[in-house]
């Protein structure tokens, strides 16, 4: 197995342990915790009838935020933490592209949707607007064409919609152990690529 940042190993159990240790951290700038956001995105994906792989991607799309030592709100410090790439690289090794690629593309999906959907920008949370600027802003026409033809671009757009919607402070939130148990049950259903 390969050791990643923060001692994370390419194994589902190590990912669950990372969420157990850091899930209660604030989802920077959004008023909810990391595990609440992950849980809400997972629920929205399941309610929409997403495949188990895409449900898992929805749960884990922001894993990269937990793979370093986040301090405060990176976007307020003018930092793009490139969390989508860190998370996707780890997930690729564990479950392959069906989980990893929607995660890798979820930031690009925001840049794409802002470019093609009138009113999309206005619906973003303040932190998503700040990060959008750091991530390159709305895509230009050529970038949009390239994005549309990328494998998993549609899954990434679905994930992005759940990402925007899964930031509700008032939504019923599990505590960390309950949420991690739900996630473990889902992981058991998705084919694992042993190292
Ligand atoms: Fe994200
Ligand atoms: Fe997110």
Can you give a write-up of this model?
Helix content is 57%, strand content 2%. It has helices at 12-22, 34-47, 52-60, 83-95, 97-104, 106-116, 120-123, 126-134, 141-148, 153-165, 176-187, and strands spanning 26-27, 32-33. The protein has a two-stranded antiparallel sheet. The radius of gyration is 16 Å and the shape is globular. The model has no long low-confidence stretch (mean pLDDT 90). One fe (ii) ion (FE2) binds next to loops.
Topology (SSEs and partners):
Blueprint: H1 12-22, E1 26-27, E2 32-33, H2 34-47, H3 52-60, H4 83-95, H5 97-104, H6 106-116, H7 120-123, H8 126-134, H9 141-148, H10 153-165, H11 176-187
Antiparallel strand pairs: 1-2
The protein binds fe (ii) ion (2 copies).
One fe (ii) ion binds at residues 37, 61-62, 163.
